[in-house]
Amino acid sequence: MAVAHPAPFKTIPIIDLSDISSTDPAVRRGLVSEIKHACTEVGFFYVKNHGIPEEIIQGTLALMCKFFDLPLEAKLEVENTKTPNFKGYSPILSGNNDPNGAGDLQEGFEFGFEPLRVTDAPEAEDGAGADDIMAGANIWPAQLPEFRQAALEYYHRALNLGHLLFPLFALALDLPEDFFADKTKRSAALMRLLHYPPQSGEVDDRVIGIGAHTDWECFTILWQEPGIQALQVLNSSKEWIDAPATEGTLVINLGDELARWTNDVFTSTVHRAINRSGIRRYSIPLFFGTDYDVRLEPIPTCVSSDRPARYEVITAGEYIKARLQATYGH
Ligand SMILES: O=C(O)CCC(=O)C(=O)O
Ligand SMILES: [Fe+2]
C-alpha cells in the first residue's frame, strides 16, 4: 500500500458513525475512506453518533467517582501489585508511561473481560484463558458492590463498538472485511478508569497526568470528561495539538499493535494529558487488542520493496506484558 507524506495535522477529524451498520456499498466506501485518512495521517479521530447511550457512561462515571473517593487503604486492598498482569488499583505516581518522566499524576483502576452477568455462560468470548500469558482475573473492591456491574455495563458497550470498527480498519487496509474476526474472538480488551487531580502553579514537566506515550493495543476508545482540556496529540512537526473533550464524542486512537501489524501504514501517535483545569478530571480508555496468541506478522498489503518490514514479529500477549511490566512493574 503506497503511503504519501502528509502535512502535519493541526486538527483531529470527526467521523459520524450513524451509518456504521449500513450495507449500502457507497455509504460504506465513504466511511472507510474517512477512516483510512484518519488512520494513515493522524492516528486519532473522534466519533459521534457512536451508539453508546449517555446514561451508561454516566452510570460508570458515578461509581468510579465513588471508588476514587474511598480512603486510600480501601483502594490499596485491590492494588494492582497483588494480581498477575496488573489488574486493579494503581495509586498516584505508581505508573510511568514516559521513560523520561518521573511518574504519572493519576490514579487508575484496570480490568479486563468478564461476562456482564455472572449467569451468562461465555462462549466465543471467554476472556483470557487459564494458560494465557496475560491471564489473571479481575478484582473488585468489596466495599463498593455496585462498582463491578456499572463498570462492566460500559465495558461491554465499548467492546461492541470496537467489534464494529475492526471491519472498517480491515477495508481501509484493502483486506477482506472479516480479516480481524478470528483474531479478536477473546476480547483482549483492558479498560482503565482514570482520575487526574488538578496540577497548579509550577509544573515539573516530568510529572504530568500521563506522560508522552503511544498506546499498546490495536486501538483505544477513550471517553474524556467534557469541558476539561487535558489531552494533547503530537504531530509530525513535534507540535502538541489539543484534543478537546466534546460532549457526545469518543476519541479513537490507534496503538502499537496495529502500527506493528501494518508496518506503520497505520500510525500509533504519541499523546499525553495534563490537567491544569483547577478541578479533578476523569477519563476512561478501553484498550482493544488482538487475541494474545496472535503473532503480529506484517500484513502483506503493507510490505513492499520500498517499505521493508520494520518490526520483529512477536505475539500480542508478549508485547502487552512487556509494556505493562515497564510501566507499572518498577
Ligand atoms: O486521559 C486521557 O485523556 C488519556 C489517557 C491515555 O492516553 C492512556 O491512558 O493511555
Ligand atoms: Fe494513551
UniProtKB/TrEMBL annotation:
Fe2OG dioxygenase domain residues: 187-290
Protein name (Swiss-Prot/TrEMBL): Fe2OG dioxygenase domain-containing protein
Protein species of origin: Mycena maculata
Pfam families tied to this protein: 2OG-FeII_Oxy (PF03171), DIOX_N (PF14226)
Gene3D superfamilies documented for this protein: B-lactam Antibiotic, Isopenicillin N Synthase, Chain
InterPro entries: DIOX_N, IPNS-like_FE2OG_OXY, IPNS-like_sf, Oxoglu/Fe-dep_dioxygenase_dom
PROSITE patterns registered for this protein in UniProt: FE2OG_OXY
Gene Ontology molecular functions: metal ion binding; oxidoreductase activity
Key words, A-Z: Iron, Metal-binding, Oxidoreductase
Protein family according to the UniProt entry: Belongs to the iron/ascorbate-dependent oxidoreductase family.
